Amino acid sequence: MSAIADAVPGDAPTGLVDPGYRSVALRAGGLAGRWRLRALLVCAGLVVAAVTLAAVGLVVGDYPLTLPQVLAALTNDPDAGFARTVVVDWRLPRVLAGLVFGAALGAAGGAFQSLTRNPLASPDVIGFSTGSYTGALLVIIVIGGGYLQVAGGALVGGILTAGVVYLLAWRRGVQGFRLIIVGIAVAAVLASFNTWLMLTANQELALTAAVWGAGSLNGTTWDQAIVGGGLVLVLLAAGAALGPGLRQLELGDDAARATGTRAEPVRLTVMLIAVALTAVVTAAAGPIAFVALSAPQIARRLTRSPGIAVAPAACTGALLLVGADLVAQHALPTALPVGIVTVVAGGAYLVWLIIREVRHRA
C-alpha cells in the first residue's frame, strides 16, 4: 500500500473535487481509494494500541516473562528454553486469535450498520450470531463432531439464519429497520430452541456446549488460529473489494443505482461475507457478543466520519477483544471467558445507545 498523493481543503488540483477535509490517496494491488487523513491516523493508533495490548498478553500470566524473554522466544533464540513453549505454544495463538477475531467482528458489525444505517444493527442483535450458535449446538449435541464439524455447523447455521431473515424482511427490497425487527424476532425463536437443546441433552454434552457457548479464547490452538484467521483474512479481502459499492448504498438504493451499482446483489453479498465472518469467529471461540455492536460506533466517533467505515471498525474490534481478554484473564479475582466480559461491558453500552436513540428521535 502506498501513498500516491495528498490534498488539503482548498488546494485540490484543477479538475478534482475538493472533499473539504484532509485526505490521502492509497493504492493496494488492484484497489485504490481516498482515505480521510484523520481516519488513517486513528487506524494507525488503534493498531499500535492493539499490538501493545497483545504484547502485554504475551508477557503477563501465571508464568510471568520479561519483554526480552518474549522477543527471544519469538525469534527462536536457543537460550529461550521454557519461555518459548509458554509464548509460542500457549499464549501466541490466543493473542493472534484475539486480534484477528476482534477485527472480524468489528468489520461484520460495521458492514451491517452501514447497510442498514442503524447503530443497533449487528450480528448479535439481528440473530446471525444466534443462528451460528444453533448450528454449532446441533453439531455438538446431536452429531458430537470435532472443531471442523462445529465450524461447519456454525457457518451453515449463520448463513441459513441470514437467508431466513433476509426473505422475511424482503418487501420490494430490504429496509434496515425491518431487517432489525425481523432479526430480533428470529433470534428470540432460535434462543428458545437453543435452550430446549441444552435441556434435553445429556449432562456431559450440555456442560461442553455451555462452556463453549460462553465465548472464550481459552485453549485456542494453532489449528484454530491458523484456520480461523486464514478464513477471516480471505473474507476481509473480499469485503474490501465491495467497499465502493457499500459506500454507494449508504446514499440510498436509488442513488446507488444511478451510479451503476447493483444494489441488491451488492447488499446480499456484503451480508453473506459479514455472516461468514461472524460464523468463523463463533465456530472457533463461541458467540462473543457486543464487539460487533460497539466497535463501529466507537470508530465513527474517533474518526468523526459521517458514516460507518469498516476498516476503522475492524481495528477497533481487534483492540476491544484483545483488551477484554486481558481483563478476563488477569483483572478479575477469577479468570472468566472473554464473552462474559464483553456481555457485561456491551450490555451497559447497549442501554446507553438505546436511551440516546430514543432521546434523539423524541
Care to describe what's here?
It is built from 14 helices and three strands. The chain is mostly helical. It has one domain (38-326, 337-347): ABC transporter involved in vitamin B12 uptake, BtuC. Strand 2 (23-28) and strand 3 form a beta hairpin. Helix 3 (82-116) crosses helix 13 and helix 13 crosses helix 14. Mean pLDDT is 81; it is low at 1-15.
- Total number of beta strands: 3
Distance between the termini: 45 Å
The CATH architecture assignment turns out to be: Orthogonal Bundle
Overall mean pLDDT? 81
Helix share, percent:
over 70%
Low-confidence stretches: 1-15
**Total domain units:** 1
What top-tier CATH class fits best?
Answer: Mainly Alpha
Helix and strand sequence: EEEHHHHHHHHHHHHHH
Principal-axis shape:
globular
Going by helix content, strand content and strand pairing, the class is mainly alpha
CATH topology: ABC transporter involved in vitamin B12 uptake, BtuC
Strand order of the largest sheet: 1-2-3
Q: What percent strand?
A: under 5%
Major beta-sheet overview: 3 strands, antiparallel
- What is the assigned CATH homologous superfamily? ABC transporter involved in vitamin B12 uptake, BtuC
- Radius of gyration (Å): 21 Å
Please count the helical segments: 14
Which features characterize this protein?
mainly alpha, globular, disordered N terminus, three-stranded antiparallel β-sheet, about 350 residues, ABC transporter involved in vitamin B12 uptake, BtuC
Q: In summary, what is this structure?
A:
Its main location: membrane. The protein has 362 residues and is mainly α. Helices cover 71% and strands 5% of the residues.
